[in-house]
């Protein structure tokens, strides 16, 4: 069989932005241009047009040949051309051709190079073959456009092949992909946030994560069908929303709102693409399909799965993160009673021990769940603490005090050696009765959500490192697998514990390994992979016998996006919308970093650069004028610092517990110079 491959460079051969429109009949409501522009734009994977075309060839020996031969010729039964879009894409393909003879043209799609050929990788969920689409060739000149229901949400490679009982030659002279994701944006590169540092790998990873989230923003009429089709695929299901876009779990599949993913995806969306409208639409679906008991769906329509306490609480935490970032008090007011019902649903599961007893045991894929599980208890602790903030914003201070008190009782209980803390190991065990596993998720969340005692953070962070291999952090609670979701939590956990170099190394190790993998998309964040470096996440657990089912663009794996902004650049909001904020950079092993994001209040950005010989740094920031914040900068222990703000020597306080200088500042654009000896 003849196999040739063409590749498509999505930044070339496209019309100018002025000629672009939004997806199909969607009203364009997205931003016209990016909030920040600079040298970091070259890392942005999003195409400048909603229509993209091919550019290079992959030979039968998998070596690229430069140039785009036109026309590309298929000749005879079984002949194949594999078109490579050079990165993750998704949408509707149109193929224009001239033909001599009769037969069928087949189209097959894959995210990974491993499965290119006459069969698409697996996406339908029934594990029957996805197979291919077929177009009848009956005329000398023609074109084929995929049916809308056959939209392919995530792929890199498009294989074209011929089936014929006679002689057939096909000259393919044009291929166009109409991008379907981020449906309300005419300018797909109009991000609300940015990141840029002295580390090329981290820059690429940040933008791959942002792009992953963008490919997860879809029209709610293009979800995966349920009940699942037995073969082929159908992406025309309604996801329970009449809005223009929502966020789903994966571009290729499941193309459904899975609430557990939101805990990682929402903070990263809000500081990268900045699509707060899509986030609100997604959360609204959760409220619309909330049960009368207060329970949120684990997966929204058309799946309508329930029975997951961890995913229920992830929705509640994501809701807090959205309100904090946007100050959307109208949404808070219209959903507040339902939120309180959701809180009642989980608070009643805190028993006489002070611990949360998980009865909704469906979860992200860990080997077991239920009872006084550590992960569930850390989620419950954060749900209570974030709920307390929401109660304050909603004007119910008594409720805030009550939820804080419950949170402190739970924190004391879960940290007791009689319950979940394993003093002999120096980390949390999986539950109060299971010391055989010290989970990645529970221990990472303990660090991230401040669910443990301060004097234990160093031990927990160090113990998490014992799960690392050469390509990532294997999850003890899902043996032999590296999961982008729990690894995201671990990255943020190390940063919360002030182990910044450790966190950066894990990002480079895991996300860098995949981004540079010649078999991957080279542009997105994968759902997970086997600890031996093979694709087929969770294949050893029976999740799927088809290794190609793994999603290569999954929102739950985008933790580095928010981590690099909130911890490394160091900007976090401390009141809704950013009226107050904190700037607490962590340097790790970097020389410089900068980044920013946009809220309805305005643009927030900061940039820091270290001086040679560890003698000081320059810290610039630009925040909305009507805001104020706390700047906290770590300095070497025992050093004497001089702080100059906008060329004026200023006084500062020193926090000995974190070895940082601190000062309260106003909004606007300012430059801080700090020297120490």
Query: What's the name of the CATH homologous superfamily of the domain at 3-179?
Result: Galactose-binding domain-like
Shape: globular
In the CATH scheme, the class of the domain at 3-179 would be: Mainly Beta
* Strand fraction: 25-35%
How many beta-strand runs?
29
Indicate the multimeric state: single chain
CATH fold annotation of the domain at 3-179: Jelly Rolls
State the helical fraction.
25-40%
Assigned CATH architecture of the domain at 3-179: Sandwich
- Average pLDDT level: 94
Pfam family, one: Bac_rhamnosid6H
Domain Alpha-L-rhamnosidase C-terminal: 570-640
Domain Alpha-L-rhamnosidase six-hairpin glycosidase: 242-416
Signal peptide: 1-19
Describe the structure.
Residues 242-416 form the Alpha-L-rhamnosidase six-hairpin glycosidase domain. The protein is α+β, with helices and mostly antiparallel strands and 677 residues long. Among the domains are: 3-179, Galactose-binding domain-like (Jelly Rolls, Sandwich); 571-676, Maltose phosphorylase, domain 3 (Sandwich), CATH 2.60.420.10. Strands 1, 2, 3, 4, 5, 6, 7, 8, 9, 10 and 11 form an eleven-stranded mixed beta sheet that branches. Strands 12, 21, 22, 23, 24, 25, 26, 27, 28 and 29 form a ten-stranded mixed beta sheet that branches. α2 (262-271) crosses α12 (559-569) and α4 (309-326) packs parallel to α6. The chain is globular.
Task: Give the SSE layout.
Layout: E1 3-7, E2 51-52, E3 56-58, E4 64-65, E5 72-75, E6 80-101, E7 103-110, E8 133-137, E9 141-145, E10 152-163, E11 168-179, E12 194-197, H1 200-215, E13 217-218, E14 246-247, H2 262-271, H3 276-288, H4 309-326, H5 329-347, H6 374-393, H7 397-414, E15 421-422, E16 427-428, H8 440-448, H9 457-465, E17 468-469, E18 472-473, E19 481-483, H10 484-496, H11 500-515, E20 528-530, H12 559-569, E21 571-573, E22 580-583, E23 592-599, E24 602-610, E25 616-634, E26 641-645, E27 648-649, E28 653-655, E29 660-676
Parallel strand pairs: 1-6, 22-25
Antiparallel strand pairs: 1-3, 2-11, 3-4, 5-11, 6-9, 6-10, 6-11, 7-8, 7-10, 12-23, 13-14, 15-16, 17-18, 19-20, 21-22, 23-24, 24-25, 25-29, 26-27, 26-29, 28-29
């Amino acid at each position: 069989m003849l196999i040739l491959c063409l590749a498509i460079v999505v930044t070339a051969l496209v019309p100018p932005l002025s000629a672009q429109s939004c997806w199909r009949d969607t009203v364009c409501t997205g931003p016209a241009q990016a909030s920040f522009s600079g040298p970091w734009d070259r890392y942005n994977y999003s195409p400048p047009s909603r229509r993209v075309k091919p550019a290079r060839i992959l030979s039968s020996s998998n070596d690229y040949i430069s140039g785009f031969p036109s026309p590309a010729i298929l000749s005879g039964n079984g002949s194949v051309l594999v078109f490579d879009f050079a990165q993750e894409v998704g949408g509707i393909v149109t193929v224009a051709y001239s033909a001599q003879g009769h037969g069928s043209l087949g189209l097959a799609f894959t995210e990974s190079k491993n499965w290119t050929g006459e069969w698409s990788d697996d996406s339908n969920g029934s594990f029957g073959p996805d197979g291919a689409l077929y177009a009848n060739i009956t005329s000398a000149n023609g074109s084929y456009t995929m049916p809308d229901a056959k939209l392919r949400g995530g792929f890199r490679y498009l294989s074209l092949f011929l089936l014929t009982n006679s002689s057939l030659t096909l000259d393919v002279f044009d291929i166009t992909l109409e991008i379907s994701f981020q449906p309300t944006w005419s300018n797909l590169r109009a991000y609300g946030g940015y990141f840029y540092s002295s580390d090329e790998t981290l820059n690429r990873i940040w933008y791959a994560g942002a792009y992953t989230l963008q490919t997860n923003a879809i029209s709610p009429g293009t979800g995966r069908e349920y009940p699942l089709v037995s073969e082929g695929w159908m992406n025309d299901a309604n996801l329970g929303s009449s809005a223009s876009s929502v966020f789903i779990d994966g571009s290729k599949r499941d193309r459904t709102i899975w609430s557990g993913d939101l805990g990682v995806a929402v903070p990263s969306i809000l500081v990268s693409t900045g699509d707060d409208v899509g986030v609100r639409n997604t959360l609204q679906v959760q409220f619309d399909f909330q049960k009368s008991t207060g329970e949120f769906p684990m997966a929204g329509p058309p799946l309508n799965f329930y029975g997951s306490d961890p995913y229920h609480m992830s929705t509640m935490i994501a809701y807090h993160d959205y309100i904090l970032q946007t100050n959307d008090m109208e949404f808070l007011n219209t959903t507040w009673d339902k939120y309180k019902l959701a809180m009642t649903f989980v608070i009643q599961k805190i028993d006489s021990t002070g611990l949360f007893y998980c009865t909704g045991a469906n979860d992200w894929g860990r080997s077991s769940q239920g009872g006084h599980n550590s992960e569930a208890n850390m989620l419950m602790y954060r749900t209570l603490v974030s709920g307390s903030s929401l109660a304050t914003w909603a004007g119910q201070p008594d409720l805030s005090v009550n939820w804080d008190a419950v949170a402190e009782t739970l924190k004391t209980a879960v940290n007791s050696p009689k319950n979940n803390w394993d003093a002999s190991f120096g980390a949390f065990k999986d539950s109060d009765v299971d010391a055989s596993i010290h989970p990645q998720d529970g221990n990472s969340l303990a660090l991230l959500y401040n669910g443990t005692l301060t004097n234990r953070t160093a031990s927990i962070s160090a113990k998490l490192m014992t799960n690392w291999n050469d390509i990532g952090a294997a999850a003890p609670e899902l043996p032999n697998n590296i999961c982008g979701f729990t690894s995201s939590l671990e990255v943020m956990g190390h940063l919360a514990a002030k182990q910044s170099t450790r966190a950066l190394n894990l990002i480079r190790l895991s996300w860098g390994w995949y981004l540079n993998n010649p078999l991957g998309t080279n542009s997105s964040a994968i759902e997970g992979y086997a600890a031996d470096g093979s694709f087929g996440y969770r294949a050893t657990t029976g999740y799927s016998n088809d290794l190609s089912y793994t999603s290569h663009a999954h929102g739950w794996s985008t933790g580095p996006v928010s981590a690099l902004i909130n911890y490394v650049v160091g900007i976090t909001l401390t009141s809704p919308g950013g009226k107050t904020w904190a700037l607490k950079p962590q340097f790790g092993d970097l020389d410089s970093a900068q980044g920013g994001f946009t809220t309805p209040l305005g643009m927030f950005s900061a940039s820091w650069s270290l001086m040679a010989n560890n003698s000081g740094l320059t810290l610039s920031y630009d925040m909305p004028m009507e805001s104020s914040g706390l700047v906290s900068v770590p300095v070497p222990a025992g050093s004497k610092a001089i702080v100059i703000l906008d060329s004026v020597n200023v006084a500062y306080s020193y926090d000995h517990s974190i070895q940082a200088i601190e000062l309260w500042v106003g909004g606007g654009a300012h430059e801080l110079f700090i020297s120490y000896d």
